[in-house]
Amino acid sequence: QVQLVESGGGLVQPRGSLRLSCAASGFTFRSYTMSWVRQAPGKGLEWVSSINNAGGTTSYADAVKGRFTISRDNARNTLYLQMNSLKPEDTAVYSCAKYSRSDFWGKNEYDYWGQGTQVTVSS
Description:
This protein is mainly β. Helices cover 0% and strands 50% of the residues.
């Protein structure tokens, strides 16, 4: 079955960096656009970034543009999120999510999410 397992979260000071990973299994990873989403305490789910199946096209929310970089390694079935210049408002549970439709880039639903990894930005 499909599994998405995030890692790499933790406590970091403002202006610090973290690299999140999402290990995928149970589906043909290289065929699907993947995304990172986050949920801050008391707030709804927020889309962060997406990357197409080949890794050549990316998109970012305005709140993270220029600070976060999404990437993937299709040989290792792993999705990454490099987060630099972190701010307290980046504090959230970060999850990876899989597009429901293969070989597609654009508006689409997600059909699987990981359980998430906590990122806390605080001095």
